[in-house]
Each structure stands twice: as structure tokens, then as C-alpha cells.
Design goal:
single chain, Collagenase (Catalytic Domain), alpha/beta
Length: 163
């Protein structure tokens, strides 16, 4: 089983329980097995739930963009000289999620807040595994995988209503 550390900086009643975060991470990892290297080990990641100010600061610092964003992913970078045997688990990295934006987006998209949280966690985990959506073909592959993972959890495809 994976290890998910949840840091709640933003006090919010809409933030899911740790068990939900773990469920969503495990679902993403189980679907990704065979498509990414090293997932046969237990994964480790941190999910930091923040407010607008911290999200905006990280967005500015790491993406050179102003304002908060819903999620940022920071893949683990293995330190030089770390022996292979030192990594007993598979460190994925960190996700930083802006709780107020998750709630706003869920309402504006007519989705449940919980299903939007699940979508963003799955989306973030796929980024930590190396997937991206910069090019059209990469975006289609990533969105298709997200939709499949969410469907396996009984959550509708978040991309169906897009034009």
C-alpha cells in the first residue's frame, strides 16, 4: 500500500479525509501499472492542501504565472549518489492543491466537490508519473487515462462537456 501524507494548511470542511486521498492515489497507480517504471513498489507522496495565497506564490515561483491554480505537481528528483537500495519505496513527489479553487471549479462545472477532488488527485498523480498535456496527443492520452481511472471509481468523465 502507498503512503500518502496530507498536509492541511487551508482549514476547509470541503477537504476530503486522508482515506479518500489514499483511495484516489491507489486507483491512479493501479491503472498506471505496466505503463510506468517502478510502480511495483509502494509509492510515497505528499498532498498539501493550501489557500489562494500559497497557491499563487508557488504558481509564480515555479511556473512564472500570476494568481492561484488548482493543482501543482512536483515530481521527486533523486538526489545524486543515492544508492538504489536506499529507496525501499517509490517516491513520487508532492501535490499542492488549492482547496478554494477546487470548490469553485466543481460548482462552476456542475460537478460534486468530491468528484472534482478525485479528478485533480488522479491528474496530479499522472503528472508525477511523467504524463503531460502540453501537446494534443499527450493531452488526449492523459485525459483518456484520467477518464478511465475515474470511471473505475464510479465518477463521470470530466472532459465530456468540453467543446
Amino acid at each position: 500500500m502507498s503512503s500518502v501524507i496530507v498536509q492541511r494548511v487551508e482549514a476547509d470542511t470541503n477537504t476530503p479525509a486522508d482515506s479518500k486521498f489514499l483511495e484516489w492515489v491507489e486507483s491512479a497507480l493501479n491503472s498506471a501499472k505496466g505503463r510506468a517504471v517502478g510502480i511495483d513498489k509502494s509509492a510515497e507522496l505528499t498532498i498539501r492542501v493550501v489557500g489562494r495565497d500559497e497557491s499563487a506564490e508557488f504558481n509564480r515561483q515555479y511556473r512564472n504565472k500570476s494568481g492561484p491554480t488548482n493543482i501543482l505537481s512536483f515530481p521527486f528528483e533523486k538526489p545524486e549518489g543515492l544508492p538504489v537500495e536506499a529507496a525501499l519505496n517509490f517516491p513520487l513527489g508532492d501535490l499542492l492543491i488549492c482547496s478554494p479553487l477546487v470548490v469553485e471549479e466543481a460548482h462552476s462545472q456542475n460537478r460534486s466537490v468530491e468528484s472534482h477532488w478525485a479528478h485533480l488527485v488522479v491528474h496530479g498523480v499522472l503528472h508525477l508519473l511523467g504524463m503531460d498535456h502540453i501537446g494534443n496527443s499527450d493531452a488526449e492520452e492523459m485525459e483518456s487515462m484520467e477518464a478511465e481511472i475515474l470511471a473505475n471509481m464510479g465518477i463521470s468523465d470530466p472532459y465530456l462537456d468540453r467543446c
